[in-house]
What we know:
Elements: H1 3-29, H2 31-58, H3 60-79, H4 83-113, H5 119-151
Amino acid sequence: MGPSRHLAAIGVFVLVLRGCRLRSYRILDSLQYTIGMLDKKLRSFRYAVTGLRIAAREEFNFKLQIALACTAVFLGVVFGITKIEWLFVFGAIVMVLTAELFNTSLEELCDMLKPTHDPHVAKIKDLAAAAVFAASACALVIGLIVFIPYII
């Protein structure tokens, strides 16, 4: 390695060090911002957990879907399904529960905005319920594809 290569390597090393120092100053400058954001994120997480508690306490369909999800997890443990099958099972569970949470949210919002019967509100509620039905049907197909080979 010639002297020019050594100088080039040293130059790159110095540039990297300068970049690290500049980044560390930026990190220190933004520390106050990061602490404030952490508080906001923690509050956001608490709101999400509160929403899950409300759904689990007040919504029969959510309770039923949680029970079915627990059954699927139990069967997965008993049958020893593969990692890929677990991904599909958990994906289906999350898809159904998320659809149910959106459906419940839309129903609550519609009831708050329009307490009397309105055909537009009925259409919105029907469409949201159809989304839950579609997610549930897809989860059922996934469950059948994953678990039938173990049962037969």
